[in-house]
Amino acid sequence: MSDPTGLHGAFRQSMAWLHTWTGLFPAILLYFVFVTGTFGYFSYEIDHWMQPELPSQGEIPSNRAMAAIALNHIESNLTEQGGELTRYFIGLPTSRTYQYLMAFANLAEPNAEGERFIREDLDPVTGVLISDVARDTGGGTVLYRMHYALHYLPYVAAYYAVGFATLLMFLAMITGVVTHKKIFVDFFTLRLAKGQRTWLDAHNMTSVLALPFMLMITYSGLLFFLIEYSPGTMFLTIGLDRGAIAELRAHRYPESHVGDTTGVFADSPALSDLIAYVEEEWSDDEIRYIEITSPGEENSIVTFGAVDQGLHRDRGFTVMRFNASTGEILAEDPARPYDSEFYQGALGLHEGRFSNYWLRWAYFASGLLGSGMIATGLLLWAKKRRSLVRTGMPVPRGVAFMDRVNIGIIVGLPLGVAAYFWANRLLPIDLNGRAEWEIHCLFIVWVLSFMHAVAREVRSAWREQVGSLAAMCLLLPVMNALTTEAHLGNSLSAGDWERAGFDLASLVFGLVLCIIWPRLTTPSHGSIESPEIADPAIIAGSSVQAHKVST
Amino acid sequence: MRFGTSHPLSYRWDIVARIILAFIGGLVWISIFGALTSVLFDRTGVMSLVQAAHVMTLFSFLPWCGIAMWVFYEIELMKLASWLGVSSVLMYLVFAWMN
Prior knowledge:
The complex is a heterodimer of chains A (551) and B (99).
Chain A: H1 11-24, H2 27-40, H3 43-50, H4 63-82, E1 85-91, E2 101-107, E3 117-122, H5 130-133, H6 139-149, H7 155-179, H8 183-187, H9 196-209, H10 211-224, H11 226-229, H12 232-237, H13 242-252, H14 271-281, E4 287-293, E5 301-306, E6 319-323, H15 338-351, H16 357-386, H17 388-391, H18 399-410, H19 412-426, H20 434-455, H21 458-483, H22 488-493, H23 497-521, H24 536-550
Helix pairs in contact in A: 1-7, 2-6, 2-7, 2-16, 3-6, 3-23, 4-14, 7-10, 9-16, 10-15, 16-18, 18-20, 19-20, 19-21, 20-21, 21-23
Chain B: H1 9-43, H2 49-58, H3 61-71, H4 77-98
Helix pairs in contact in B: 1-2, 1-3, 1-4
């Protein structure tokens, strides 16, 4: 388009300006969200690796045995703690979820702490509380949670900050597509060792390759907090009070069977018989949970849920319900309206819980590409402005600072995550608040990375931090072998691929970083730090010049 | 884009005003647009009010992006504000009348 009447030139130039700033402004937060969210695709596997005391997949007993353990625990221990219970929930370990047994119950009245439910996690073999046998850790679940709830921040503030950043990213992606005239040519173009051009090609390539994923992940990310992020239409039409939200919920999840409390008690068929029936019916699917509403009463309902095989995030197509007093199978819920299907499908796509291992790796790789897109965007921005030195134009203030910040963000965060895994193996098992200290280690190392980047010359800082990250990744399986029995040798021989996969992935990351590392030591036009900007005095001089212009 | 130079204060205020216009003005506009469309769908029997409001909220981020792109393309700030303001008021009046 040749129309020069836009705010920053022609339409495409104006959109390029918008793309730069909507991408740059939230980049740090988005990088954090992408890195931690990418780990979230393997959160259960990371959970498993971070609690080596728990049994491996092969040692897990039958569903009937585990359900009996959990039921017994709920009816004895949880009733003792909470009084009358209105709903039981038993989460079973499966090959694609957590490896512990979850006993969960809703209380008829809030307990002394004001809680309306109690949850306890059990060893699936012995039924002993996990907290008594396994180390206290946040596991992969904490990394996953951090990608939308952050840390050290109130929950509401965190999800609004993440939502704001996500909205800007969505805008940055649309304007990025508008800006790139030859988007498919860009995809096949990577000119190595060409300085700024190389970073632009890398940015374009990672963006275009992951574009469908990125569009899906940002838009569906906004839908998780739909009413919080875009409340206006609801407010003006049906309102935002409790009744309106309940009406919306009933629209999204129409249900035909609700187990209200009647107070009339009845005998129930044995849970083990129902489990046997469901296992036979679902020969290919594993039972993920068992839910019992109004337990012991005549209208009690037992619901079985399978591991999510379908796209939908919730239990829509993987549920079987029984009347608990008669054992009769209940009809499925009524069909949902198409907007609810779309909504659930979008959330399901975002979380990827339906995916098998191959697809989950594809999600993981796309997440890495997304992180790479943000990282190359940050580097490109600084590189572009530093290249002004050659044209004789003043370099904007803050570019030298951004060079340091880029190191702290791009390498510092993965260093922090690696430190989180190391802390899991090195912190004393009986340390008070151990899980929280693991997270503190992540952030302490991240802050140290920023400090190191500020203290050292830019190229040295890159080299030292990438080298440290490579060493931490390569030595993590060694540390695992020195501190636990769940090392690579044992996990491979036991066929425990969740734990073995973690160690192997860590080795692969370490090796990839070892391949990258020598490039950081050789000055070239394609390296992160080009010779023309190696001298901090040049940058300082430019900054002074820029300051003079501005004053 | 003027690299390396300090932008005049008027330019900075112009950008700040556009940011506010894009976020607050854009969100208000899509809310009223969504509400009006929902009521229209409800009245014409296309779908229930709850469903229509849900659908319009689900897709509200797309028109918002369009507004944000327009806000950062159009040169005349007053023209922008007028278009957004007048159309919002008109849509709201129709919505209030229909509701």
